[in-house]
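hey so i finally got around to running the thing on that chain from the lab meeting. sorry it took forever, my laptop kept dying and i had to restart like 3 times. anyway pasting the input first so we r on the same page abt which one it is
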Amino acid sequence: MAFFAAARQGRKDDAELGKGLWRRAHDRFLRGLDRFHQVLEGVEDDQLYAELVEIANDLSALSVRVRQVCVEAQRRSPSEGLDIPGALAGVHRSLSKAGNSLATTAEAAAMLRLAVGPVPVGAASVRRRAESVFEQIADAERRLAEQRPES
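ok and heres what got predicted. didnt touch it at all, straight out
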């Protein structure tokens, strides 16, 4: 059953996101989320785990917004390759930065997981890095809204 669901989702993604630039931006964000959740599996400190789960949930909620931006960008400027359309270059840049920031957020969580002894400030460093992900997604949404849709 899972195989067929994955195949259906792949076809839906191809139709909505294409196979180029916008699909890659979307998939990269999802890989970053997956990595963050993988890091959670090894956290033994209950308080730190609770803080990181809250951050993970907040970041996961962003995936819907990332998909909406990528779907709309694909609709306006279809991409089957890696060429960045000039009109939406800022949108792509913000999505790319968000993917990078999400990766560093997962890395910060992994460093906390490996810390020896109690972590005095909890997940504050991870929260700070996650804030940049939120800002970059909001920037991508703003830039997309500022661009006049192509007819």
